């Protein structure tokens, strides 16, 4: 029986409306050979770092779905989560193919244990909705994360690894929009009501302890030829954030940074207590049915 | 009276009534009620599926599901906007929803218990919605018809992704096939109820047909849905949970068993498995967001004063 | 609560270069900048646009059906403005 939509869709327009044919097509014309100057193990680790940042953060942002302050914002936050999920899929796929052990994006997302995840801790903490935070904390994290990742991706467009450079080139446009969205909301919350101002100050204080970690290089990030050393991004990102804070009449939060655990943090696979719950939720269906097809 | 005759002439000629045209008060009220219920259904409908985004077992399924639930927010929004062209107000309609004064499709008062439910909702629930919605692209009120065209176009992937998920799961493990069958058993009858009460008990059908707000009766659409779904179920390799389901060559349609209308009315009246939970979730989101909406409005007002 | 409700905006999208902006729908936003961003998220999330206009619904002045005659009758009789007025043989190409 024919799909009753068929009569509605204009001929040849199918692709325009369809969704879910995969994201890899975006990079289909990119050379996937690893340059000889690039260490393969380090490249795998680096793709996991940047991929896990996006995957875990996307998981957190999607929690807002059906819970945003207004329908328009529900759509906006879902768009950002989808952009990041797309980045994660490209990066995990690259990690799997360079590793050469037969792991695809799903094996990496669903079958690694917590210690194998290399995301920064900023993306895994609970910033709401619910007990862990609220819309202001969510915007504060988005501002910090997107300002940092945009600066990183702008440099990464020059990476000697053609896949990383292509992922970055695609991501730069997305991240610029995310940063703008966060900055717009920061201005409105800071200049809105007394209550919203209080919330955005609290939100920034909630996420600020995780900021130094963003700029603390892991050895892989300093020695891999294809990588960007995050320490080199600090002044640029600080400048961007200060511009937003100045416009919003906010101060940079003055709070202690969260210490590493036994000298290790997110990039080493050492996470906060929130991470186990996040992964349990994300992975349990996939893990409870071995051999299943989805 | 010229106005009324002009209205009737436009409707009878299958042209569209537009927002600033004169229209009978009953037409306006019926439309506002129907469009609002439709909008509420999209918004409440985000919850049962949205609950599985965090647990989707592959990244591709996660992206599809998130995009689909996002679409539902957009569709609710288009429909609220259509209602607003008739003088309704989104805040007021939302208040009616969260206070239980306006209804939404009862299908969303059933729980989603496994990931197969995501597939079955796409296949059967979106399939039933398609049967309802495609004719509405020609409904007599212009803004509603245009919203429906956009919605139907965007939804073209919703049913397919559901059916594709189920086909994939049926090729998977035995446990997955059992999961699909269990989900089909739970959703089939509620999906049939989506078309509303039988024609003889449907209070508004006749007038809505005359005004061309509705284009087909509940029973006509239900029959069309059954006729579409049976061969799809066969292809999928699942048995629909109705022993009376059989091809009737004389009618040229499938016969099917009696719907449990007592259950239908029970769920409509608020006593389904998830009614209270769905409304509470929406109310909480709306109330939790109040300070954000207020802040943005205050900021805009402040800047307008400064300008 | 009514003090916090956001105004209604109408959204116009230019689908591709060379076309007019066309009304695609409405949304609520606290101000113009957010309206533009919301419009992008909502009405071009499948890439259906190259340019967006947003305008507050309250800023639009519309003709009313009661004024229909003086507004629309004059062009109604200038049928030569409509392509179908011209009787062209079927076998003339590209017209």
UniProtKB/TrEMBL annotation, chain A:
Species name: Actinokineospora iranica
InterPro entries named among the record's database cross-references: Aromatic_CoA_ox/epox, Ferritin-like, Ferritin-like_SF, PaaA_PaaC, PaaC
GO CC terms: cytosol
Example of a GO biological process term: phenylacetate catabolic process
Transmembrane segments: none
Extent of the signal sequence: none
SUPFAM superfamilies, sorted: Ferritin-like
Official protein name in the record: Ring-1,2-phenylacetyl-CoA epoxidase subunit PaaC
From TrEMBL, chain B:
Gene Ontology cellular component terms for the protein in this record: cytosol
Domain of life: Bacteria
NCBIfam families linked to this entry: PA_CoA_Oxy1
Taxonomic classification: Bacteria, Bacillati, Actinomycetota, Actinomycetes, Pseudonocardiales
Biological-process GO terms, alphabetical: phenylacetate catabolic process
Natural source organism: Actinokineospora iranica
Pfam family, one: PaaA_PaaC
One GO MF term: phenylacetyl-CoA 1,2-epoxidase activity
Xref: InterPro entries: Aromatic_CoA_ox/epox, Ferritin-like, Ferritin-like_SF, PaaA, PaaA_PaaC
Signal peptide location: none
Protein name: Ring-1,2-phenylacetyl-CoA epoxidase subunit PaaA
TrEMBL record, chain C:
Gene3D superfamilies: Phenylacetic acid degradation B (3.10.20.520)
Recorded superkingdom: Bacteria
InterPro entries xref list: PaaB, PaaB_sf
Name the UniProt record assigns to this protein: Ring-1,2-phenylacetyl-CoA epoxidase subunit PaaB
Originating species: Actinokineospora iranica
